[in-house]
Amino acid sequence: MKRLVVWGGGAVVAGVLLVLGAVGVAMVVITPKLPDVSALADYRPKLPLRVYSSDEVLIGEFGEERRDLVPIAEVPKVLKDAVVAVEDSRFYEHGGIDYFGLLRAVLTNILHGANRQGASTITQQVARNVYLSSEKTMTRKAYEALLAWKLESTLSKDQILEIYLNQIYLGNRSYGFAAASESYFGKPLKDITTAEAAMLAGLPKAPGTNNPLVNPRRARERQLHVIGRMEDTGAITAEQATAAREEKLHLRDAADPARVHAEYVAESVRREMLAQYGDSVYTRGLKVYTTLVAADQAAAYKSLRRSVMDYERRQPYRGPEQTVELPTDQSALDDAVDNALADHPDNGDVLAAVVLSASPKEVVAVRANGDTLQINGEGLRPMLASLSAKAPANLAIRRGAIIRVTKGAKGAWEITQLPEVEAAFVALDPRDGAIKALVGGFDYDKSKFNHVTQAWRQPGSTFKPFIYSAALEKGFSPATVVNDAPLVFDSAATGGAPWEPKNFEGTYAGPMTIQRALEKSVNMVTLRVLQAIGTEYAQDWITRFGFDKDKHPAVLPMGLGAGSVTPMQMAAAYSVFANGGYRVAPYLVTRVTDFKGKVEFENKPPVLDESMRAIPERNAFVMRTLLNSVVKRGTAFKAWQTLKRDDLFGKTGTTNDSVDTWFAGFQPTMVGIAWVGYDAPRQLGVRGETGGSLSLPMWTGYMETALKSVPVASLKAPEGVINVDGNWYYDDFTPGRGVASLGLEAAMPTAPAEQQVGGPTMPAPVTVAPAPAVTPAAPEERNRILDWFR
Q1: Model pLDDT, residue 749
Q2: DSSP 8-state symbol, 16
Q3: Where in the numbering of this chain does the Penicillin-binding protein transpeptidase domain appear (predicted)?
Q4: What is the number of other CB atoms lying within 10 angstroms of the CB of residue 7?
Q5: Burial of 607 (0-12, 13-18, 19+ CB in 10 A)
């Protein structure tokens, strides 16, 4: 036995001498070929483009590598201790090669007959990661050793450790420990605990195998090993080691409800930065700060999805997404479920599951993570037809059916379906145009199309306020009485086929004020007013708000929203009413910095001045009073009912056949636009939805959060307006001097008592611009396709 030990020891010594000899020869041959490592003194790895909210919440990241450069002075001591303990305990003692560690590794591997222990130092790993490949050859090992010596002679230990901590790959697309901390724990590196530091320090050896999101068991084993090494080296006490072992880790969930969803915003910024800086934008570590407010963005995302899912609950069930055969054997069942759900990922809080059993009383389903769910009672009510034995194959919910589940208002599971409908929401500050929230669709992964900026849709009755704004300049006032009675227009008036428009409910109320007409979104009144002021004048007027002339032809249907707008355009246009008559351009980026924080670009918010004026201040004021009455007494009453604020203004909109629904509204510090519709236009709902039932709840859901700490604003009258008997007038269009009535000379029904005009006797009608000729069309020629609704 002694002889074997002596022989073994001799072999080890001979091996070490052989290695040293080989290294000596390599130094002579290879050293002249080594790269210049002095550049690492100013270490600049590839850093991604990062996009932040105004309150510095990360909302987007684009680049070849997910990495955040952290100076060694800002790295927590507990992490440095953990890494050194497990990767290179003699790091601060050796000169790049740890000969004692090398000898120990050789002995261990010889005695155990396998390559059980490595001997690469942190310095060697830096040399390999920065300059070399991972191939296991003697040549690469020689280069690695020589580079390690060169690094040690050029850089300080802290500089080498800093490069290592920022360069190493740690799985989950993360390079460096700062990125890994965010990726695995959702927190900045400075906030990690001892247990979390040990988990991260266990990743470099095998980032795929030890990934806690993929293989929590192996990750836990490695973490315990690191904690043990930290205790052995004296980095932590026995008590601290025990506490670290017992600490429960909270890993970041990919579907984390606290995550701020701003994918459409991040993508808009990425495109803008790419156009400005080129491909280098993905590697130079630029940081882009936006006007977005994280809490507002989260509220917009949540409200949009809730409104869409509420709508989806009212729609017929379209059946499971797929039905697969499931084995009865439990071990085979797990694999079958994983395979079945591989192409059906969760969509936020709308989760995918495979049905294990189904009856009209209960459905049992399993998710990809192994959770088993029981759905019963109200959670099954909309799907009872699909649970019937007689259900058609494409609608039937059976064992193997892939369904969607979500939690209802009371927290119980319910079966649902991914929506086909789309939606958009945008909010901005009308005082400077800063975009505070933007959600371009129900789900970015499902559709990258940004409906806020790219979807051209008909605005319906949300466009009426711009017609009334134009009318104010022609002598009309909120108190002007207009006849709500049937109209028929010939092709000269419409620019197309003859047209017999209708009110939303097909009824007519007779004489009413413009204020009441806007509150109830009466089509006939809007058309009579537009006919009186002239379509070309109105077309010119709307361009003051930023609308395109060519998308709003100068024909009468324009008044009912037959043109095309984007939600972003509507936000900018309603901002003119909200801020007192100024036109501001929406903007998103406030500043761009390099990775060290040096400002490369800054976008300061504009200061409102008369050069930005779009409409007279008094026009904006009177329109605000009208839009306020829509909220308090009209089609948007639910907004006041929900928010209980007197400083809310807005207008509902629903286009023909309920193809698009809108709500455009504001408080003096915030404009919000909500839209819902199908990408391939079709009616919303079996019976037809309205802006009040579908888009308004999205708006109020957002404003509940956005206005929570905002004081109620008072409406102050500017110069140039006067209040007479509770009605606002321009001071040069007071009663007797402006347009008192319109269309009363025509035959008309008597208005119901509750709709008759009250107050003092109105002055006699005032002559206005001649109206286009009205010629009744033959019944068979009347085209009702432009029957625009409120």
Answers
A1: 40
A2: H
A3: 424-669
A4: 10
A5: exposed
DSSP annotation of 749 reads P
Contact 696, 652 (CB under 8 A): yes
Residue 145: closest CA among 161, 168, 123, 167: 123
Residue 741 appears among annotated catalytic residues:
no
The token duo for 205 is 């050896």
Angstrom distance (rounded) from CA 240 to CA 193: 11
Q: Is 76 helix (H, G, I), strand (E, B) or coil?
A: coil
Please state, in angstroms and rounded to a whole number, the distance separating the CA atoms of residues 325 and 404.
18
Dist CA 237 CA 248 (whole Å): 19
Q: Is 362 a catalytic residue?
A: no
One DSSP character per residue, 575-629 reads HHHHTTSB----B-EEEEE-TT--EEEE-PPP---GGGB-S-HHHHHHHHHHHHH
Tokens, residue 221 = 């084993």
Tokens (6 digits) for 603: 């976008």
Burial 370-407 (b: 16+ CB within 10 A, else e): eeebebbeebbebbeebbeeebeeebbbbbbbbbbbbe
DSSP state of 441: S
Which amino acid appears at position 103 of this protein?
L
Q: Give residue for tokens 């009383």.
A: 361
The single residue of 53, 183, 303, 461 carrying the catalytic annotation is: 461
* Token pair of 497 as six digits: 């086929």
Q: What is the DSSP letter of 451?
A: H
**CA torsion sign, 55 to 162 to 274 to 425?**
negative
Which residues make beta-bridge pairs with 742? 482
**What is the C-alpha separation between 749 and 524, in angstroms, rounded?**
14
Q: Tell me the C-alpha distance between 269 and 49, whole Å.
A: 10
- Quick one: tokens of 77? 């001591």
Q: How far apart are CA 424 and CA 402, in angstroms?
A: 28
Distance CA 642, CA 629 (A): 15
Digit-coded pLDDT (tens) for 647-672: 999 999 999 889 999 999 999 999 99
Residue 29 has pLDDT above 80, yes or no: no
What letter would DSSP give residue 439? E
Q: Which two tokens stand for residue 395?
A: 């609608």
The model's pLDDT over 100-128, given as tens digits with 9 standing for 90+, comes to: 655 555 555 555 444 444 558 988 888 88
Instruction: Record the tokens describing residue 408, joined without a space.
Output: 């209802």
**Bridge partner list, 589:** 290
Helix (H, G, I), strand (E, B) or coil at 543: helix
Beta-carbon neighbour count of residue 22 at 10 Å? Answer: 14
Q: Tell me, what amino acid is at 359?
A: S
Query: Tokens standing for 457?
Result: 């849709």
